[in-house]
Write a structure and sequence with these properties.
Largest sheet: 2 strands, antiparallel
Order of helices and strands: HHEE
Number of domains: 1
Strand content: 5-15%
Number of strands: 2
Distance between the termini: 19 Å
Radius of gyration: 12 Å
Length: 50
């Protein structure tokens, strides 16, 4: 996937706190197993560190 296609894909997510619209799952899948995802959720707001 080119950087432009990746950017366009990310822009399609209707990510408005607290709903990430699946953006975090997409990013984790895109990065693969080489990256570690740390979930830091507060109340009903999701936060991720990659």
């Amino acid at each position: 996937m080119t950087i432009i296609k990746l950017f366009q894909k990310l822009l399609r997510f209707k990510s408005v706190t607290p709903n990430d619209d699946g953006a975090f799952e997409f990013i984790a899948e895109y990065l693969g197993e080489e990256w570690t995802c740390i979930n830091i959720d507060r109340d009903d707001t999701k936060n991720r560190l990659y």
